[in-house]
Please model this.
Amino acid sequence: MSYQAEYQAKRLTAEDAVRFIQPGDDIIVPVAPGEPPALLNALPSHSGLSGNRLFRMLTAYPILDVETERVKEVSLFLSRQDRPGFFEGRVELLPNHFSDIPSVLQQVSQKRVIMTAVSPMDENGYFSLGTSLSYIGPLLEGAKTIILEVNENMPRTFGEQNRIHISQVSVLIENHFPIPTVANPTLGEKDYQIGRTIADLIRNGDNLQIGIGAMPNAVMEFLADHRDLGVYTEMLPDKIVDLYESGAITNSNKSMYKGKTTATFAFGTKRLYDFMHENKDIYMLPCSVSNHICNIAQIDHLVSVNATVEVDFLGQCNSETINGKYYSSSGGQADFAKGVRLSKHGRGIICLYSTAKDDTISKIVPTLPKGAVVTTSKNDVDTIVTEYGKAELKGKTIKERTEALIRIAHPKFRDELTFEAIQMGLLQQKNFFTVGGR
Ligand code: COA
Model:
């Protein structure tokens, strides 16, 4: 049978395709832009579902309208869409490092159904995972059922474990929906101050991992005139296209994947997805490869830039909960924090505004509050940046860290933080420094 004939023979409607899922199967969909919306929408119509789990990450679509006894949703990273469901008990959160997701799911899930959007089939019968290779590539092996949602808007990308052959596919549907996009964050004055400070730490020839959110994105505003930058990242953001256009990115100084930008998923605007389509400079990697600390360690001159919610005097970063309540998850923050310490000339930068809620809350805190978690540990933390400058914590004692962090706290909170540090025995009275206004 020709590949085209096999394609047509496997083509069904979404409602019929999901009937291939049996009770107790685990349904695994990729990170946001690769989610298959028509298949997800069709799931509640499948009366045979019972005791199934649905694993999703950073989902772009609403959670399912279906009883949890039939389908339990398990989030691998909360998003705006599934956060309310988490607090209503309709979504559960599975703690993870992004690098570990394939091995964790291989361990806990023996009956795996992969449901993913893909780019159209090529002449050799292959579909590409497009924007969202992430954990899907490694989980194809041993999957019980593979259901595809073919979308001509999904860019065809290259990389490792990034394609599926028609012979592996159980069934497929076609749905040419617009891929979810995320607008470029609106940047404020604080973002620019933070971006400028971080850009000053990045040298020509450095390789970059840029994390999620406005602050990490602001850094790229100041890199247009840098030269020979490389990209070894987890999430590929939109502004990468600007840096290619300005000539800043050449990937020529990469000790691995020379000449290639590597990422495990992309989330941006259509401009980014168009840029990725059949672009041989973009090389997608499974998260078990891109985020494995041994691989990160092989990339010399790697600078990681990630955001956090709050930092305590030890340098512990909580990047997942706000006011003690779950907001997001670890993603690859700890993978990169650990990995860059092993990279030759590597550097880990974590950024945050000094305050939240109109300067009423300091985000530099004596201790993490109740309900907070440690995403980047005190032993992995390197450099913290706020709009007041940088605190280089790596190699510093607790006392030195406390002083350095108070210096980049909002001036309004510096005396109060100093008082707390004295109470905690981290600074001594004789060293008390009135830092307000400095
Ligand atoms: N106390 C009270 N409120 C706080 C707060 C604090 N300490 N810190 C933040 N907030 C509020 C903000 O004011 C904002 O409120 P608003 O929506 O009303 O404006 C809201 O919480 C979100 O904060 P913000 O700083 O805008 O979050 P973000 O969307 O930029 O995300 C992280 C920041 C840290 C949550 C996000 O980067 C993350 O999840 N990181 C972990 C994963 C990671 O780094 N992966 C690495 C590679 S992708």
In short: Residues 189-436 form a domain with the Glutaconate Coenzyme A-transferase fold (CATH 3.40.1080.20). The mean pLDDT is 96. The radius of gyration is 23 Å.
